Amino acid sequence: MIRRPRLISRRALLRGAAAAALAAALPRRGSALPAPSLLAIGHVQHGGNWNPRPSAIRRLGWELGRRTSIEPAPDSVPVRLDRPGLHRWPMLYLAGAGPFPAFSEPERAALRRHLQYGGFLLVDAADGSDGDGFDASARRELAAVLPTAPLQPVPREHVLNKTFYLLDRQGGRVLVKPWVEAQALDGRLAVVYTQNDLGGAWARSELGEWEYPCTPGGEAQRETAFRVGVNLAMYALCTDYKDDAVHLPFIMRRRS
Q1: What is the helix (H) or strand (E) element at residue 115, kind and residue range?
Q2: With bands split at pLDDT 50, 70 and 90, how would you rate the model's confidence at 65?
Q3: Which neighbouring-strand residues pair with 61?
Q4: Beta strand pairing status for 77-79 and 42-44?
Q5: At what angle do helices 105-116 and 133-145 cross, to 10 degrees?
Q6: Phi, psi of 160 (to 5 degrees)
Q7: pTM (predicted TM-score)
Q8: Nearest alpha-carbon partner for 99 in 165, 153, 52
Q9: Domain limits of the chain?
Q10: Hey, is 152 helix, strand or coil?
């Protein structure tokens, strides 16, 4: 007896195609990157409004993955300064809108130790304050954490402004200052502080809309904010490697 071939229904075909598409979309076990290889930014919690721009770091990470070879984690990780494990985060992010209570002495000591051993901290004033609000609280804590390293404007020729992009201006939701400030330890920038609300320029809603306008420079100012963020991440990971690369042609000429 010759059996007729079994007919497959349209519904079954669609189910099979959907299953194949799902399997193709899932990461393969052998090609998935291990978690330690991803750049995860530690978002410092404090007693005030510590997360005023919830989507900001996630969006910066997306731009880092698109523009550079950095593999970012899906989002930032909330961290407490009074808990062990700060060494897991090469880049910390301290943000806020409005004043916040003073850190405890153990918190200050833990942050100081982290920065002295090579950690990097980006401080971002979401309220665009100058002399009050978040600005006053941040300056108080930074002076207490690194009392021998006062905040100083970062000069335009510093390697921070050429780690990936060549920068000659600043970006953010607002432009309170045309520079960023930093605290240096043995020539390395351990803390970078901006009053221009970088997070407000990075923040984007789930529908893909920018959450805040950038004034006075509009979208060009937003693009500069992303470039500043990329340079900061590159500096946190590689410090002054780009400064050495700038001098490479001169070194090679001397050797020849």
Answers
A1: helix 105-116
A2: very high
A3: none
A4: parallel
A5: 70
A6: -55, -30
A7: 0.81
A8: 52
A9: 35-251
A10: strand
